[in-house]
Amino acid sequence: MRFSSVSAVLALGALEAVAIPTRPEAHRAEPTIYLCGDSTMTSKGNNDGTAGWGLYLSSYTTVSVVNKAIAGRSARSFWNEGRFAEVANLTKRGDIVVIEFGHNDGGTADANDNGRPDCPGTGEETCISGKTGEIVYTFVHYIKQAANLMLSKGATVILSSQTPNNLWETGTFVNSPPRFVGYELLAKQELGRGVYYVDHYQAVSNVYKKLGNESTNALYPHDHTHTSPQGADLSAQAFTQAVYTKMNGTTSLNKYLICNPPIVY
Fold it and tell me: 160: closest CA among 190, 180, 134, 131?
């Protein structure tokens, strides 16, 4: 009897063990891509019929893109206006944040400071705004500060160099990258894990060199900075190709690109 009782208890335990359902593996949500930038990225461009490349990026990804770029912003003003914080509050772990500035970051924070220029330098140099008395930091400082905020939310960050102006404006191909292209790379190198770099400037430059003078000039209807919708789409394709071909190494975006994205350079 003793043996039978023990056997029964063991059998019951075995049945209970089988009956306990295993915990299903938690569903991993697809990431969202958030874009932080200026008029060359925002959907409406410079609000004059031009467009920014962020409008078209979703055509080449398999996940949602939320374009939070705002015309006329620099890394400094985007930070001071709380726009990086706004994006950070939206992000969840695994999301991807693309940060691209440079077009509005030049100039000096003197008596005519419009709230956009960064302090010259590549580190923790500071300036005092001649207009407001605000402490102004370097471009690298603002970019690193923004990236660290996104990282603290569990997102990964892609630092993208600014798009070029019209490189055929004079009728001759002139490719001279602004200092902010290198500053984005410097910020990435100092940040390390979870941060990636895409040389968008070089990718679009490659497209323009291939297109030639006439076709490139046709992409700039009003000035040498803002492109037509066609030009914006080409910039999005150039960015996608740079990621797809790992021009600057693998990024967190690679596995969320469409199959066989366009090759434009």
Answer: 180
- 226 classed as catalytic: yes
Higher pLDDT, 88 or 21: 88
Provide the pLDDT confidence category of residue 29 given band limits of 50, 70 and 90: confident
User: What are the tokens at 125?
Assistant: 């140099």
CB proximity list for 262: less than 8 A, separation 6 or greater: 60, 237, 240, 241
Residue 74, token pair as written in the block: 């620099």
Task: Choose, from 39, 74, 77, 235, the residue flagged as catalytic.
Answer: 39
Return d(Cα 12, Cα 30) in angstroms, integer.
42
- pLDDT confidence band for 9 (50 / 70 / 90): very low
Cβ neighbours of residue 29 closer than 8 Å, sequence gap 6 or more: 92, 94
Report the C-alpha gap between 76 and 104 in whole angstroms.
9
Catalytic residue among 7, 152, 223, 224: 223
Query: Using one digit for the tens of pLDDT, what is the confidence trace for 158-167?
Result: 999 999 999 9
What is the rounded CA–CA span in Å between residue 220 and residue 228? 6
42 — alpha (psi -120 to 50), left (phi > 0) or beta? beta
pLDDT at 2 over 80: no
229-244 vs 200-211: helix crossing angle, rounded to 10:
120
Choosing from 226, 233, 235, 252, which is the catalytic residue?
226
* Residue 223 annotated among the catalytic residues of the structure: yes
Contact 121, 143 (CB under 8 A): no
Strand partners, 119: 138
Low-confidence winner among 15-19, 187-191, 251-255 (lowest mean pLDDT) = 15-19
